[in-house]
């Protein structure tokens, strides 16, 4: 979200989203959209994509799509923790994962829902992959949960949170399928990754990025790391704009995105997380050296 917002502020052009019913306004508030057949899907692509920000012009053929795939679901105060379908379904099959990325939140007329997609995959020529430390991802999600629920925003609160998540998702069939694979037998004990807090989250993070790597590998792609936005926001933003063929308006400010998070995991846990995640890819997944090895 922050990257799309940064691009929109810099260009004063609306980007796009495959999460079609909720869009943004200039002050980053939410706006519920009502589908009409004259929306951008007929202008930009045959069936998609949807406008992301209702306050900006959408008159450029170059557009970043804020893509929601399977495995994106996070805790929400009103609805609680995620059910299986948005949490993990289709995550173990890159082809089905890609379909979910393209489909997104479809709210088109009922007669078209069975076959319609937000955009056609073969129209995606470039992929921008944003990578963050797996430990920071888990910790950041925990801190949001802790703030919303009055939990201790420290390791003392992280461990019960992880236990709760692992208990909730360890029996989901995709997770159980992974736990029973022969090459995971040395890692898993009684269906759990011992010594790895939030191991179900690290499972989900690994497969999401492994799928993203495979999709990006077949196209022109750019990788940016979370720390790039902190250490060099202007250079990183310039690279992202240039990559898409977008132009920064004169005088438009580029603000740093995010900040560093205390990961709250011990060195021993960090080592076990690395062993667990690499085992998921049989210690040979090409995503690992490109995306995650730098964090371990």
Short descriptors:
single chain, 296 residues, mainly alpha
Commentary on this structure:
The structure is a single chain. This protein is mainly alpha-helical. Helix content is 40%, strand content 9%. It contains 11 helices and 9 strands. The chain has helices spanning 2-11, 84-88, 94-103, 134-149, 155-169, 173-179, 199-217, 226-231, 233-244, 267-280, 287-291, and strands at 16-17, 22-24, 30-32, 50-51, 65-66, 126-131, 188-189, 192-193, 220-225. Strands 4-1-5 form a 3-stranded mixed β-sheet, with no helix packed on it.
Please render the helix and strand layout as text:
Layout (H helix, E strand, L loop, with lengths): L1 H10 L4 E2 L4 E3 L5 E3 L17 E2 L13 E2 L17 H5 L5 H10 L22 E6 L2 H16 L5 H15 L3 H7 L8 E2 L2 E2 L5 H19 L2 E6 H6 L1 H12 L22 H14 L6 H5 L5
Parallel strand pairs: 1-5, 6-9
Antiparallel strand pairs: 1-4, 2-3, 7-8
Helix pairs in contact: 4-5, 7-10
Fraction of helical residues: 40-55%
Computed over alpha carbons, the radius of gyration is 20 Å
- Strand/helix succession: HEEEEEHHEHHHEEHEHHHH
Strand content: 5-15%
Low-confidence stretches: 38-48
Integer average pLDDT: 85
Principal-axis shape equals globular
Question: How many strands, which pairing sense, and closed or not: the largest β-sheet?
Answer: 3 strands, mixed
Give the termini separation: 26 Å
Query: How many DSSP H or I helices?
Result: 11
Structural class, judged by helices and strands?
A: mainly alpha
């Amino acid at each position: 979200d922050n990257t799309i917002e940064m691009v929109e502020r810099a260009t004063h052009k609306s980007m796009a989203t495959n999460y079609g019913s909720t869009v943004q306004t200039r002050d980053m508030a939410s706006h519920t959209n009502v589908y009409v057949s004259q929306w951008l899907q007929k202008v930009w692509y045959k069936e998609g994509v949807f406008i992301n920000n209702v306050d900006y012009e959408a008159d450029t053929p170059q557009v970043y799509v804020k893509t929601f795939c399977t495995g994106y679901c996070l805790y929400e105060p009103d609805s609680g923790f995620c059910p299986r379908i948005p949490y993990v379904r289709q995550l173990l099959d890159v082809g089905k994962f890609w379909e979910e990325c393209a489909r997104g939140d479809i709210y088109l007329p009922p007669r078209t829902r069975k076959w319609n997609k937000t955009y056609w995959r073969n129209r995606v020529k470039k992929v921008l992959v944003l990578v963050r430390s797996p430990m920071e991802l888990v910790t950041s999600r925990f801190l949001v949960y802790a703030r919303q629920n009055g939990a201790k925003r420290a390791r003392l609160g992280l461990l019960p949170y992880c236990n709760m998540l692992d208990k909730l998702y360890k029996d989901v069939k995709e997770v159980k399928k992974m736990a029973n694979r022969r090459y995971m037998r040395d890692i898993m004990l009684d269906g759990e990754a011992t010594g790895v807090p939030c191991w179900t989250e690290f499972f989900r993070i690994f497969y999401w990025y492994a799928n993203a790597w495979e999709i990006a590998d077949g196209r022109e792609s750019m990788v940016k790391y979370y720390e790039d936005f902190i250490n060099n926001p202007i250079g990183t933003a310039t690279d992202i704009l240039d990559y898409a063929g977008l132009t920064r308006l004169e005088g438009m400010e580029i603000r740093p995105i995010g900040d560093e998070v205390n990961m709250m995991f011990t060195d021993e846990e960090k080592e076990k997380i690395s062993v667990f995640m690499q085992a998921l890819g049989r210690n040979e997944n090409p995503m690992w050296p490109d995306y995650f090895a730098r964090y371990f």
